[in-house]
Design goal:
Elements: E1 2-3, E2 5-8, H1 23-26, H2 33-47, E3 52-55, H3 57-62, H4 64-72, E4 76-79, H5 92-110, E5 116-117, H6 130-137, E6 142-143, E7 165-169, E8 172-176, E9 182-184, E10 187-189, H7 194-199, H8 202-210, E11 215-216, H9 236-243, H10 249-259, H11 265-271, E12 279-281
Parallel strand pairs: 1-11, 2-3, 3-4, 5-6, 6-8, 7-12
Antiparallel strand pairs: 7-8, 9-10
Length: 282
């Protein structure tokens, strides 16, 4: 089962970068989201694939046409926070207000309440698993925020599974769709999105997909935009991670969608035998 998802944010929404850290700074950057999203939607229309799009509430207020177009194309629209704040730096009350605000802004456009959530930077980690309980209490049925390996802005390397599971907490239940992991040159890593996907040769991605019975992808519109400018303040390593492979990434994605079947999270929920899924109690 291969799941296709996109985080709908602007090209400058990199985490913990001083030059782009607050909404008042964002107005000085060129908007590129609409054109980049159109590129993705055209590819999905061409390949006949439906995806889950996790959208920022701030994006919904600034570019409502983008959200409207995604929904009109028949894709599922989930929540990706209000302003891209890391959940690991929020209190429980701040998180609750964040998801409520984002949910209302997107529901005003799509006409339906979002049921899926992904945290910026996969920032639901061991110390704030209460966020999954909050999501369930707010009516979300599924989350895709767990990154069961090490990473800069999140990461939960000792999360017990890297496949669909059920999380129970405080009398609530939510479906969890973590990132899938693999061993690559002896290291536990992922291959199914962002810089990992752009860095790896397609032959490796194809081989790893074939031997995986579950793949959770994650992309951003900026992952397919070779025309974006360099953001100020990036270290050489982050510059490499953020810009490597942009010239051929859309063609690589097209090959992946052509070679394998992909579905959205809603369809994945229907196809999963939840009676056999592991239950994580927190």
């Amino acid at each position: 089962m291969n799941i296709l998802t996109f985080d709908i944010e602007e090209w400058y929404h990199l985490l913990e970068l001083r030059s782009t850290s607050r909404p008042e700074q964002w107005v000085k950057f060129e908007p590129r989201l609409e054109a980049n999203t159109d590129r993705i939607l055209s590819l999905l229309d061409e390949t006949g694939v439906k995806a889950t799009f996790f959208a920022m509430g701030w994006v919904a207020t600034q570019s409502p046409g983008v959200i409207r177009k995604i929904a009109a194309c028949g894709h599922e629209v989930g929540i990706h926070s209000w302003d891209h704040a890391l959940v690991s730096k929020q209190t429980r009350e701040e998180f609750r207000e964040d998801i409520r605000r984002a949910s209302h802004s997107i529901a005003d456009i799509t006409g339906v309440s979002s049921r899926m959530y992904r945290a910026p930077g996969f920032s639901i980690v061991k110390k704030n698993l209460w966020a999954l309980e909050e999501l369930a209490e707010q009516g979300f049925i599924a989350d895709a925020s767990i990154f069961p390996a090490s990473r800069s802005h999140g990461g939960f390397p000792d999360f017990p599974v890297d496949k669909p599971c059920i999380v129970e907490s405080g009398g609530t239940t939510i479906y969890e769709f973590p990132l899938n992991t693999t061993r690559y040159f002896g290291y536990k890593t992922v291959f199914s999105g962002g810089g990992y996907f752009r860095l790896m040769p397609y032959s490796a991605i194809k081989r790893l997909t074939r031997r995986s019975d579950y793949v959770m992808s994650y992309f951003h519109p900026r992952d397919f935009d070779p025309g974006q400018k360099y953001l100020p303040g990036l270290t050489p390593l982050r510059l490499f991670k953020s810009y490597y492979g942009l010239n051929n990434s859309i063609d690589k994605l097209k090959r992946w969608l052509t070679d394998f079947e992909f579905i959205d999270i809603d369809e994945a929920i229907r196809r999963t035998d939840w009676s056999k899924a592991e239950i994580i109690r927190i």
